[in-house]
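request received
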Amino acid sequence: MDGRHGQWLRGVLDLCVLALLARRESYGYEIAQALDAAGLGRIQGGTLYPILLRLQRTGLVVAGWREGDAGPARKYYRLTPEGAEALRRSAGEWDGFADAVGRIFREVVPR
Amino acid sequence: MNQDAWLTALTDELRRHGVDAGVTRHVVAEAASHLSDSGEPADSAFGAPSAYARAVVDSVGRARRPAGEVRLRATDIYKRYGRRPVLSGVELTVRAGQVAAIVGANGSGKSTLLRICAGLVSPDRGTVEVHGALGYCPQDGGTSDFLLPDEHFVLVGAGRGLGRDVARADGRGRAAALDWDAGTARPARQLSGGTRQKLNLVMAELGDPDVMLLDEPYQGFDRGSYVDFWERVWSWRDAGKAIVVVTHLLDRLDRVDLVVEL
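response:
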């Protein structure tokens, strides 16, 4: 995650993680795969897990360990009501921000 | 580095940063589980253990102990040079386990206040109490041109009751933590400015003093050494030292306990 794409991602990655957890609870590796499938590219563990720790510390997600059917025990993360509220607020702000940027671009760059 | 070695190194790094044992277990187990799911090498998924440990520490925050007894108390300090008043009624109290930052424009008396606290300059008025052993790192100077780093360690160690071998080993170990191999280094006058500052810093911390007075000790450090320096400040704080740092860089001020603005 280098260059400008990386800079954009740093600003919204925690919100994208919250949004994925709003669908259903999940664990780190699965979240990384979902972010990749959503088109954000491969997010390294070294980037993702510190974000999950921060979300946990600030009470926006809670976590618990669970044995998998196959494979290792995994730490599952779940959105809290505070997390859902933070996501709702930030998603609204993001829309406003992205719209404003889009309007500026559309004035000069035809699509 | 194979996966087990990487996980062991991560465990060690987290412990070095004072991360709680329970949190460490969770972080290491989660990394192991990710590696098992993804099949990636640890270094490419998480980077170097030291870098990942720092990211973890920044995310979970540090466990803070309450501040202890007063280690340094400067009361009603006045100082003028000629007709120019430099310090007028400055107060500073630092307890064990606290970091104080002295900030202000050039010429505002930051270094003067620190030198007064160190007992190197007398105030025109006011008192300074120090409880415990004191280490002082000047902004520049402080090294002896023709002495090797080892000889500096032995000299300063002698003043703090350390034998030659202990002082030399202690100094070299602390230098290594700043990414500097002091054992093979040349006399001080042949060292770069940044390396001489590392020497000053190591001398200040030799023998683990209770009070550390640091005057912009990171001048000439590269980015990595600058980060290492602040990591050391936080670990000294965790170890219960009282620390005063003169600084003009504001990027760490949100993490210090006290700010004195001159």
